[in-house]
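Journal club side-thread
Mid-discussion, someone asked how the predicted structure for our own chain would compare to the paper's figures. Pasting it here so we can look after the session.
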Amino acid sequence: MAKGTNCDNCINYIYDEDYECYTCLVNLDEDEMGRFLQNTFHDCPYFRLDDEYAVVRKQI
């Protein structure tokens, strides 16, 4: 898994319409969640690039 620092580009970072905000789909432990909420969760081991063109590149 690639490590990343920008949640905005992560496939696990989605908009939750019930809470009306963006949330992380990964089940973070207490320490990870604290760092996530404080915006200090760098080099996230769960980061996956939200590359919407990956499928298209595979088809070419």
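Post-session note: The beta strands are 13-16, 21-24.
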